[in-house]
Amino acid sequence: MTPPPPPPATPAVGTDPLRDPSLYINRELSQLDFNFRVLAQAMDEQVPLLERLRFLCISCTNLDEFFEIRAAAVRHAQEFGLPPAPDGMSPQAILNAIHDRAAELVDQQYRCWNQVLRPALGEAGVGILANKSWTTRQRRWLRAYFRNEIMPVLSPLGLDPSHPFPKILNKSLNIVVVLKGTDAFGRAGHLALVRAPRSLPRIIQLPESLGGPQNFVLLSAVLSAFVDELFPGMDVQGAYQFRVTRNSELVVDEEEVENLALALRDELVDRGYRPAVRLEIAHDCPKPIMQTLLQNFGLLENAAYRIDGPVNLNRVIQVYDLLQRPDLKYPPMTPRVFKSPEGIFETAAQGDVLLHHPFDSFSTVLELIREAAVDPNVLAIKQTLYRTGKDSGIVEALILAARNGKDVTVVVELRARFDEEANLGLADRLQDAGVQVVYGVVGYKTHAKMLLIVRREGRKLRRYVHLGTGNYHSGTARAYTDLSLITADPDIGNDVHLLFQQLSGLAPKMKLKCLLQSPFTLHAGLIKRIERETRLALEGKPARIIAKMNALNEAQVIRALYAASQAGVQIDLIVRGACTLRPGVEGVSDNIRVRSIVGRFLEHSRVYWFGNNGAPELYCASADWLERNLLRRVETCFPILDTDLSRRIYREVLQNYLDDNLNAWDLQEDGRYIKCEPAPGQPPHSAQQALMEGL
After folding, report:
1. Closest CA to 598 of 144, 222, 129, 59
2. What are phi and psi of 43, to 5 degrees?
3. 39 within 8 A of 108, measured Cβ to Cβ
């Protein structure tokens, strides 16, 4: 997978040896490697065929976002002369390595598509038909479709002195056309651009009479085949697909704007036309035309990716959505539904409730909010919303609660990446219904997942709390693994109350009794607990750390883990994506093991477990061990106080995943990931499958 990094410079005398750049893996290259593990699922013959197609499309979508955010950030660092990363690589070196590694990924993606999945789909009766394979009848139907459905909304643009190179929208499908001859006005043809209509589907399903309802054609193929009809009287000498990816990170100086919502609306207008970071273009495009495009986009040649297939391959996911072929998909899973005959409030009052999504239905969380919305004893509801999805039942319940006279306060994170526009609309809807909407804290994204319900019970008020590792999004709750805690514990309830005070008002830094909080106590709290395990090991006592998260790069935490390993602490890290810690380095991290799980569901839960000399502490959190999460966001980390629930999480989320020998990849000292396999005589074990079967 990842080649070993170049040997770093020898550290200067007197410097901290744990800061040696050779002890760190580059974050961007580690993030790219995650997509190789996703792509491996697309190549795995044990995975149902249409699910393999889905994994291929996920790897393509992930790569898009990687260039829009991570590669764009590196280019920004290069332009502003920012210092090297902890691994010692300069921004320019990282950018070059990104393009080299991404080129390998793109090559594997299209070999997977052209040589493996497309033929396998054809054998299964699902045709993604290329131009050369169209029958005469299919071609006739597609030409009519082009003339009747596509051509009326096209606006081809000839390039000449009065029509300079236009702005090209981020990730839009375009075709550059090479022309010869003159038009009606005597203008000599050279180049023209055709942008695929955004209003039309990217996948065209052919009628059953033309070979069955399971035959599809890409819009890009139809455009390329009949583009000559847009230029009558001229000779089309070539037509080449291309797509440009742009920096999509919104930049708003929150200290300088008076109204964050208005500032974000202005930024969203320009997002599609920010600086370019990548050009994808047809593999047979002549080099002079590619150079023209690169020049217009301000890109170097290594930022161009020649594509042997559709440049927007991720759009093939529509085939998965359109086809009713249960034989080619995962068997449906019916999540467990939590039973509370007396009502959720009465159940939570008697003891904490733990839900493990998607194996436990997210409907319980939705039912909690709905019950609060109509319960006459509920006085107030407070909630954070980061991502909710369209037609959110939670949003409808909050609106209902406000209309029923409850005091409803919602902290809407406007800066949730790629959900900014949706969250602006969400905030408007909530405010129109009488909900008090708060936009969080200037300079800190509110990434915490909290719900607080204040209910009158007799002569007292009781607080009910939901805390989670995932978003309040019913769609992702079916596809991501996450944990939910519903509790009436008074100390946790008071902590969450204080956090909402801090978010909605101008409250000072407060001491919480149970919760750890970013940006104030979580980072220090993690370091403190890692150092406690280090002391226990040095004293000859049992010392152990197990943690599960999506990504790890915070340098101080990594140094603390290295020191713990040197003291003899046994450390297991389950890190889905990017991990900059280098395990297995003799004398430094030889007691640290890192693994990544890639399976049917996206691993999203964050769990931290510390042995504590036989009195273990287990926390769930909204935060990864990333610099941004620990230092520049509002995050929550909450203890599981019920010992039975703590043991359940340890069994289901930690030990279960450490036992996985089918979907796990172990990170090596040189930065490569190696797929795990059952040892001789060892039974195969899939953590996610075990959870689906009830563990």
Report:
1. 59
2. -95, -5
3. yes
